[in-house]
Every structure is written in structure tokens, then in C-alpha cells.
Design a protein that fits this description.
This protein is an alpha+beta fold. The chain has helices spanning 6-13, 25-41, 179-193, 197-218; strands at residues 48-54, 56-57, 63-66, 71-80, 87-93, 116-127, 138-147, 155-162, 228-229, 240-241. The protein has 4 helices and 10 strands. Helix 2 (25-41) crosses helix 3 and helix 3 (179-193) packs antiparallel against helix 4 (197-218). It is elongated, with a radius of gyration of 21 Å.
Length: 242
Amino acid sequence: MATLTFADAKTLLAPYVTSQGASDPIVASAINFVNERFITSGQWRGNRFIMNFAVTQDSGGNYVFDTVAGVESVLKVIALNPDDSSGQTADIMSDWYPWVEGGLGWLPASYAGDTQILRQGPVRSYPLPSGDGAGNFTVDTQRYRVIGNVPETRTMYCIVRRGYVPLVNATDRLVPSNRNAYRYGVQAWNYENINELERAKVYWELAYQCLNDETASFEDGEQVSVDIQTKGFAPSLIRNLI
């Protein structure tokens, strides 16, 4: 995947945004708007990556881990033993899980059973440094609770979804980095600003087609898999497809 830095993108895309050149602040703003839309609208090449999280205990003794800037959410988890000799796949349950009718309800910190990851929602926010295209931007991090193993000493080995963080520095890398997609994206952004929504739609579709084509080509050799939900009828052994 070719690397596209913020500085490269401003030079490349400025002619589609303004006649004032790459230093015009409107160029940085346009790129950030397009980058945020790309990151939040699909799973393109580069929008997933692997990250480890250490588990700590909150004030109630529950085992938790928090995401960091640049991570929108956790998609899949393997709980790795301290020596990395083995790991257990853990299902991620939504923040609705404790309230589901017929479910297990609230589980105490001492609960022992199948390892599950419960999304708790945003827990804190902090400002990012102001800069070119960033403005007064804050990050809300997500907290996940780990239940089933007491004490929980394992590392959470996760596939995560990339979260949007404003591009500020010249060396900041754009992900996704498809140049044609950004060219169409800033053109769509231009048309939206003058309420030419039909034209904007055409350019957004061209942008997404570039991203789809790149992603399909990148993932061409991967096997298609079917997720099996093993916790749906716990503690029985019946499985249901999701």
C-alpha cells in the first residue's frame, strides 16, 4: 500500500479545492472531512489492525480495558495467556447485553464462566493538540469489561476498527490512502458546499468504488468465514449462526 502523508495529500489535492495552493487552510479542512467520512463509512484496506490491551481493575473490582486515540471499537478478541502459549477467543457483547430479556443480567466481578467482552461505552475524553485541520477536537475512548476469568491476567489480543483522528502534522499518514478516492472525495466535498447534492453523490460513488476495488483486490486471497455464536444459548452446546 503506497503511503500518502498529509503533506503529500495537500500538494496533490489542492488544485481540486482552491486556487491558492496547498498552504490554504481550506485544503487541510477538506482532506480531514473526506478522511473522516472514509474511515467512518466502511471497512476499507487499512481500517482494521491488531492491537494489544492490558487488563486493569476499575473501582468496583471489574476487569476492564480502554481503547486509545485512533481506535473506534474492538471487533474480535483472543485472550492470551501471560506466556503467549495459548489463547481463548472471546465474544464481544454489546452494551445492551446485561439488559436482554432472558439473559444473565448483571454479572459480579467474581463471575467465573465463559470469557466474554462487554462493551461499556465511552468512558472519558481528552483534547488533541490543535493544528492544521484539527481545531478543538476531543477523543472519546471506549471501555470493555472482561468477564469469566478470575483473576484476569491475560493480554487482550484484538482486531480493532480504526477511529478518526484529525490529520495535523505533515507526516501524518492518511488511511485509507487511495489517491483517486481522495480526488473524487474532495470534489464531492466541493459540490456539497454549494448544495449541488446530485453531483456530489456521483463523486462520492466514484470515491467509494475506488476504495471497494482496492479492498477487493487486497482481500482476494482470503477465505470467506462464517461466525458462529456460541454464547447465544449458554450454557447449552447449541450454536446459532449470526
